[in-house]
Specification:
The protein has a single domain, classed as M1 Pyruvate Kinase, Domain 3. The radius of gyration is 16 Å and the shape is globular. The protein is mainly beta. Strands 1-7-6-10-9-8-12 form a seven-stranded mixed barrel. A two-stranded antiparallel sheet has the order 3-11. The mean pLDDT is about 95.
Length: about 190
């Protein structure tokens, strides 16, 4: 049995970006293409092989700042879900840079709930591995508020279940705007033990 099953559907890269410094701003800067490495997007503040643990993993690592594997190198959102969040906020569009997105894809329904372990493979062979759904937080709301006054505070509620996923680079290579991404999902039944 193969560990991954190739789907007939593909996603398309519609936007790429990187965050220079989270301390300065969560806002991403747009890119046309990127040569992804095993540490993520070169120069991106979320990159690196490891990261300090944060509030998301306190159950595992009660001591914040514990060095752990970085499975949060990228923030990937879908164009369709981004449009839904924008509509809920009463906006015509919600710019991906305001929420610190690394990649925006189109063509995958209910993208925020793809199974952990899903792979997205670019024509170059560059492969992104999905870790988990990216739960919405308050930080993007500040960026949204700066551009769309009165809308930022509603982001967390509007983005629940539609914030995309966090991911990491499994294989290096070029990723560019317009690239089709081949989708591979874990070839296993859903776990009923939870």
């Amino acid at each position: 049995m193969a560990g991954l099953k190739k789907l007939d559907t593909t996603a398309t890269v519609t936007w790429l970006g990187w965050v220079k410094s989270r301390e300065a701003s969560l806002r991403s800067e747009p890119l046309e293409a990127v040569q992804a490495t095993l540490d993520g997007f070169p120069g991106e503040d979320h990159g690196g092989a490891t990261r300090p643990s944060c509030s998301r993993v306190l159950a595992l690592y009660p001591q914040r700042g514990t060095t752990i594997r970085n499975t949060r190198q990228l923030s990937i959102v879908s164009a369709e879900e981004l449009a839904e969040v924008a509509a809920t906020l009463g906006l015509e569009t919600l710019e991906p840079e305001l929420i610190g997105a690394s990649v925006v894809v189109s063509g995958l329904p209910n993208f925020s709930h793809v199974p952990p372990g899903t792979r997205l493979q670019a024509p170059s062979g560059a492969t992104i591995t999905v870790d988990v759904e990216n739960g919405p937080c308050n930080f993007p709301g500040k960026e949204i508020e700066a551009v769309h006054p009165g809308r930022g505070k509603g982001f967390k509620a509007a983005a629940l279940g539609k914030r995309g996923v966090v991911a990491w680079i499994e294989r290096e290579g070029r990723i560019a705007l317009g690239d089709p991404l081949t989708v591979f999902v874990p070839d296993q039944p859903a776990w009923a033990g939870a």
